[in-house]
Amino acid sequence: MFVSxxxxxxxxxxTMKVAAKAKEMQSEGLxxxxxxxxxxxxxxxxxxxxxxxxxxxxNQTYYTINAGTVQLRKAIAAKLKNENNLEYSHENIIVSxxxxxxxxxxxxxxxxxxxxxxxxxxxxxSYPEMISVADGKTxxxxxxxENGFKVTPEQLKKAITPKTxxxxxxxxxxxxxxxxxxxxxxxxxxIALENNFYVISDEIYEKLVYxxxxxxxxxxxxxxxxKKTILVxxxxxxxxxxxxxxxxxxxxxxxxxxxxxxxxxxxxxxxSISQAAAIEALTGPQDQVEYMRKEFEKRRxxxxxxxxxxxxxxx
Length: 315
Hints:
Shape: globular
Radius of gyration: 20 Å
Distance between the termini: 53 Å
Number of strands: 7
Strand content: 5-15%
CATH architecture: 3-Layer(aba) Sandwich
Number of helices: 11
Strand order of the largest sheet: 1-7-6-5-4-2-3
CATH class: Alpha Beta
């Protein structure tokens, strides 16, 4: 009765509920391994922690510009240019309190009542709830194991209607781990340009790819794609900085301005200390990123090998 309809129709994140239960069980001394949240178990690299300590000692403890410090946004623009061959001005970038916050602001800024957002399944649990809060409609495409849990051009074309506003591309995918090849992404890009809808490209797992796979950032595929892509990324996975809460969005000017307005009335700027640490993460040594990636690959290979033994014994 006293809760708004838009809040009443969504639920608490299942991931957060499972994570909370796991922490509760661990506090009771139970031998629980928590695989609920996408969180590296390595500590944040020391150079990044040192940068945060320096920021505190230098009294960088005040509000920053709502969109994030110019220095951090320029570091993000440099990262996008050097690593992804994307030319973004820092004015086309906004820093938010984690990638989840970036995605929420992007959807709130672009989706109107009854707009349709196409979402491949399996999907990260918060996408449809964010769309629901924006009064949009989620159009789910069920992917298959045969296609590597990736949406096909035929499926995407079939899901498009006059109300289609956006397509969410999570690549590499959470939760399936699927990764799209250049050819597969080019097919999606062609459809997006032909039908004039946004592609919300969630690229937070870009550095956690294995077997010499080449990650391709979506808007690099065509010069016109930067006008229709809302690129979301952050520092949490690659740099083991989940608790620092820094995400960012690179997008057309109108979208960034809209997100900036919305953020100015909700959280304002992300933590000033976390922003200083993020600058060091992006501009400092990158050896720890590759070290963690290799360790994750070893674990994946071991896990896959042992699971295969179980399946072979049971068959």
